[in-house]
Design goal:
Layout lengths: L10 H16 L6 E7 L14 H9 L5 E6 L10 H4 L3 E4 L2 E4 L7 E2 L2 E2 L4 E7 L9 E4 L6 E4 L10 H26 L6
Antiparallel strand pairs: 1-7, 2-7, 3-4, 5-6, 8-9
């Protein structure tokens, strides 16, 4: 792997990630990971409170990527450990604008953007094509078989999935933005 294969905020994490991936590769195995995405600069009011919530639209698109096995927004599963008073994002005035003091809810309230950054965590599963022998079943004979792949296979696709995740999120935000514009009559003039 080349340096700067990963878009990380902390460069020391990149070396650690490379070591974990190379260790898995040396064992003929693979690893997955979690991508954190931030969408910044959005206006308030994108999305709807029910079927077309921001979370619904973006999750639907993210789960269309075959390697994605989990999606969370803001604190995600950490919310299960909090009380409402800890999880809520208080609204405050900052530089003449309404903002939230924290961003636990990932810039989304009731399915609608509130102007704060949308923070998304996307779980990418380990690559299933590994060099270790794996048990399977021959679908024609219904007999047990052992599989062992050959050829080139990535021990981790996390860094390759980044562009796919970023692109699908961009499509989702564009769709939400266009829906808002259409309902306000801007595109219909």
């Amino acid at each position: 792997m080349n340096q700067k294969d990963f878009a990380v905020l902390d460069d020391s994490k990149e070396e650690e990630m490379i070591q974990v991936i190379e260790a898995a590769a040396s064992e003929g195995d693979s690893v997955g990971g979690i991508l954190e995405s931030a969408i910044i600069g959005l206006p308030t009011g994108l999305g709807e409170p029910f079927f077309d919530s921001v979370e619904s639209i973006l999750s639907h698109l993210l789960f269309s990527i075959p390697a994605v096995k989990g999606v969370s927004f803001g604190l995600g599963f950490e919310f299960a450990q909090l009380k409402g008073s800890q999880a809520n994002d208080d609204f405050v005035m900052k530089e003449g604008n309404i903002k939230t003091a924290t961003n636990h809810n990932a810039g989304i309230n009731g399915g609608i953007t509130n102007g704060m950054p949308i923070i998304i965590h996307t779980v990418i599963k380990p690559t299933p094509s590994i060099y270790k022998e794996q048990d399977s079943v021959d679908y024609k004979t219904k007999e047990a078989v052992t599989l062992q792949i050959e050829g080139r296979h990535d021990p981790c696709i996390l860094h390759r999935a980044r562009i796919v995740v970023d692109s699908i999120l961009a499509f989702g935000i564009l769709d939400l933005w266009m829906s808002k514009q259409a309902t306000e009559g801007i595109l219909c003039k």
